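Before a computer can learn anything about folding, someone has to put a protein's shape into writing. The outcome of that step, for a single protein, is printed below:
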Amino acid sequence: ANSAVMYMMNAIGSGYAAGEEKWVNILNNIVIYIAPTINIDGYKYAWSTDRMWRKNRRPNTGGSFGVDLNRNYDSPAFCQVGASTNPTSNTYCGTGPLSEPETFASASFIQYLIANENLRAFMDQHTSGPLILYPWGWTNDLAPDNAALHSWGVQMEDSIFAIHGHRYEAMPVTGLYPCAGTAVDYAYLEGNNPFQVFYSTTFEGRGPGFNPAPSNILLAGQEQLPAIIDT
């Protein structure tokens, strides 16, 4: 996921620098913020020690390490759905909402952009399989803008398929599994209002699994970028 995002950053930046009309028109009218990696220490540990590590490296009481950052965002049913209060668990939610510097910083930035720059869309990049996930994760109830979110997801499905013939599936987060404290739910909760839809989604890469072959990196970036930009 991280490397696919880096591909997208390069494509956008180099396209603009080369004067390509599409990217010039987009970046002269829309601000795009990209954070390739939020979980820096966890990402480094996944390369150096444990390839399947998903948490950060926060020292916990009892000698364990790490909080699952995608269970640490502030949402209803925090740590009650799809998360654990056990610090040794891969889905440990932390000591409370936004207890981690990574989630606190990114949540604060999301709040700032919504309040000051009319942020209208949020996308979170993950790895495990070809899915386009949208709220909710914390409940099986449909989000207020479920129809619009699903329609957007279907458009992205078709855009992705047109590049390399790889089929993603759009569904609420609960279609994968219920979980509270996710970034996609948090951004939607902060940004949604009765007057306009806030588009929030999680890409679950093209997979397969949490450790896909490096050959999938460019393919994921190439098929996801047009879906993000053109829909």
Summary: The chain has seven helices and four strands. The first strand starts at residue 121 and ends at 125.
